[in-house]
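Re: the 304-residue chain
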Amino acid sequence: MRNAKLVLVVILIVVLSLVGCGTSNDNTPGNNGNSNNPPIKETDYHKGTTALKLSFLPSSPPDVMYDGQPVPFSLEITNTGVADTTAYITLSGHDKNIIQMDWTNRRVGPIVGRSDNYPQGGYASIEEEGRVRLPAESESYPTTLKVTACYPYSTEAIIPVCVDPDPTNNKDDTCTPKPISVSGGQGAPVAVTKVETISVRGSASFRLTVQNQGKGYVLKTDKVLSCMSRLPQPDLDAIEVTEAKIGVNSLVCDPAIIRLVNNVGTTKCTGKVNSGSAYTSNLLLKLSYAYKDSITKPVSVRRI
């Protein structure tokens, strides 16, 4: 009898232990328990108005260089936009007989854009050592070094818009086409800043305003390697529309080459739209161009 009671006590202990395990608080996401981990926040990399960022490392080159001594030159290049690119770097503003360093269309890259794999953007650098030689009759040589980067780049804008296939019948419409101002950029120096919708029965047109919001200059896509030359006006401020869609329907843009005046240009994209009442869809616009940007640094060469 005593053994039977002992067995019963052991069974009760095991059952209570199992019940206790089954009522434990599970805080993993997806369960009813409260999680201490914050939700994962997605990053919209298609924001911002910059592309390549150039910077000299501290004291490379130094503010003051001395005749006959080696001088470090170190340039950092970070892609702060979303498009992958390859840069061509030129160093100018100096007498190459005095500051003996020559970067002319120095190829650097490819440098990837910002993404989940590269949230800070791709990175590249140029590190070299030069020398300075003052002419015998000179005691000093002040100048301003200029580093210029020329590179192909692209903009992809995806903008929700209202499309009205039949403007004469509005009773079942859920939206109304109206001008849309777009701010914050699209992860590139060139951005779509305004969309105006013109609806007619069975089709729609979109007047798009495009702006250079970066600090550099826009060139034709094929002028990357000649960007340091004196280019004619048709090669400047030119942006190519490479793709335009409303939903899955293709649009034809006129002009297909957008010309910027005071950094602003427009194009009109037209195409067929789905039949029925007004609806919301995504307007897609892809733009290609070359970009030219630079930084400067004042330096001085002195005799020891």
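The chain has two domains: 52-152+293-302, 154-290.
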